[in-house]
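Example record for the data management plan.
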Amino acid sequence: MKIKITIISLIVLVLVCGLLFVFKKESTSTDYSKSEHWLSLPRVSDKKVDVFYLYPTSWQKVNQNDSNICDIDNPSMLKGSKLAFDRQATVFNDVANIYAPYYRQADALYTLSLPLAEQDKVVGGIPKEDAFAAFDYYIKNYNNERPFILAGHSQGSNMLVYLLSEYMKKNPDVYKRMVAAYVIGYSVTDSYLKDNPHLKFAEGPSDTGVIISYNTEAPVIAKKNPVVLPGAIAINPITWTREEVLAPATENKGSIVLDKTGAVLLGADGKFLSVKKYADARVDKARGVLVCSTADESKLQLGFGPGIYHSYDYPFYYFNLKENVARRIESFLSK
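Corresponding structural encoding:
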C-alpha cells in the first residue's frame, strides 16, 4: 500500500513539475521584478504623479543574420536608451516620478522596411509583450494608485499606441488616472481614434486624459517619413492647438542641443545647454505632421534623411513640453 502511494505521489510530482516547466517556457516576457530590467526605478516616489516612459529604438543589429529583436541586456541598447532618456524623459524630472523599463526592441531598419501589417506583427510580438508586462508590473507594484503620464518616442510611442487601445480599454479604472499620453514620434491617426472611442486627442494646453502626438519635419522632405501614417494627427507644441497657424521661434521656450551621438550637451554650469528662439512650429493637416522651418540641418543628425527631424521631436520643444507637463498635471490634480 505504501509503495502504491509513493508511486502515485511521484507521478503527481512529475506532472506538476511538467506543468510548471511548460508555464515557465510559455511565459516569455521579461521579469520586471528585477531592478536590473529598469532604466529608471525611483527609490523614493515623493511626487504626486508618475511617468511611465518607453524609449525609442536605441540599437541596430550589426550583421544581417543577427536577430531582429535584441536581448534585454544588449549593451548597445542599454547605452542608447540612457541617451534617449536624457534628451526626452528629463522633461518630466521636476514634476513626476519616472519609471522606465528596458524592453526588447525590434531593429528599426528591418521593421520599417516591411509593409504596415508585417510591421505590426514584429513590434506587436516581443516588444509589445515586454511593454505590457512592464506596465502591468508597474501598476500593480509601484504606482499605488497615483495619477500617471504615459510618455514615449518612436518605437516606444508605438508601444503606447497598443497600451492605450488595449490595456486601457480593458482597465478603465487605470485609464481614469491617466493625466495624458505623450505619444511623440509615432502616428496617432483618425482611424485609430475611430476604432478606439474611449480615447481622445488633445485640443488645448490643459485638457487631461488625452493623447499628445506630432512628428517634426522640414517644409520639404526628400523621402517619405516612415513613422508618419496616413491620417496622422498633430498638435503644435508651442501653441498647443491643432490649428495650422505658425508659432514663430520667438515663442519657443527653448531647445536643447545634442552632439553627434545624440547626447545632450552641457553648459559651463553643468546644466543642459539650451538655445532660445530656435525652432518654430506649424501644423500641416494635409501631411499630418508638425513643420519646423527654422532648423539648421547642417548641424543636425538626420537618421531618416533630409528634412525629417525625428530625433529632435523632444529637443526642439524641450522647455515647451516641460511647461506643458506641469500645466496638465496641475489641471488634473485640481479636478
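Summary line stored alongside the record: The longest strand covers residues 178-184.
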